[in-house]
Amino acid sequence: MVSDQTILMATGTILVFLGIAAISYSKNLVKSVMAFQVVVFGVNLALFAAGLSQTSRLMGDTLVFMSILVGASAEAVGLAIVVTVFRKYGTLNPMEIRRLRG
Amino acid sequence: MYSEAVPLLLSAALIGVVAAALFSSRVSTSLIMLFYASVILGAIFTLYGDSLVGLLQMITFAGAVSVLLLTVILMTGQSDLSIGVRRAALYGMLAALAVAAASAYALFAGSSGIASVPSTDISVAVFGFIWQYREWDVLILVTVFASAMVAVTNLLSEEK
């Protein structure tokens, strides 16, 4: 029988790879930030699943706690960069921004 | 029943919602689906007895970050909320309710009441652990938040 920990770890891994694929596939910077958020979700789930096997789950829970706060801060900075890029170039398409930069 | 059905249902729901968010052509649909993904992930943490982290996950990502994303979408003129998208949001909400009901049924079926919920109060223990290393924990978090605030303020300030 597959354990809960294995299922959650596999789900976290799938989320990380889905997020990375979407970051490289996306043609909209806002969606890239959303894909980054999915990567953070996957990492949080994997950390949580890793903590399930321990007799004391404190370390895993504390790492998830920290990861949530750091991920939210990084995402806020990323969204601010997106707004700045939109103000400067008038578009959110990374290919178009690269073309406009010359 | 609990050990098999709950993680499978929640994992399938999470992967489905995330895939819908990432590969949808509309940004508004992605935002709504990402909101549901945050709620499902918070439910996973809560169902496994870690209510503190589940609550923080929902407050931070389903609350604050969703509002930030919505603000950026409105600022950049990407909003495309039509009747169809609202209907999709309603269907998503119904699906999330169905998943929650199925998980709750699987959690409590075959057991007498609340006995299957982990009895250890993990949130108190986590607080104790963080309190033990509170100097470093607070220092790191204050540094991260201060850096994020300074960076966002600098980036969003108007050039003269």
Which key phrases capture this entry?
heterodimer; A: 102 residues; mainly alpha; Helix Hairpins; 4 helices; elongated; B: 160 residues; 2 domains; 6 helices; 79% helix; 0% strand
Tell me about this structure.
The complex is a heterodimer of chains A (102) and B (160). Chain A has 102 residues and is mainly α. Chain A has one domain: Helix Hairpins, CATH 1.10.287.3510. Helices cover 84% and strands 0% of the residues of chain A. Chain A is built from 4 helices and no strands. In chain A, helix 1 packs antiparallel against helix 2. Chain A is elongated and about 55 Å long. By secondary structure, chain B is an all-alpha fold. Chain B has 2 domains: 116 residues, no CATH class; 41 residues. Chain B contains 6 helices and no strands. At the A-B interface, helix 1, helix 2 and helix 3 of A face helix 1, helix 2, helix 3, helix 5 and helix 6 of B.
Topology:
The complex is a heterodimer of chains A (102) and B (160).
Chain A: H1 4-25, H2 29-52, H3 58-89, H4 94-101
Helix pairs in contact in A: 1-2, 2-3
Chain B: H1 2-22, H2 27-47, H3 51-75, H4 83-108, H5 122-132, H6 134-156
Helix pairs in contact in B: 1-2, 1-4, 2-3, 2-4
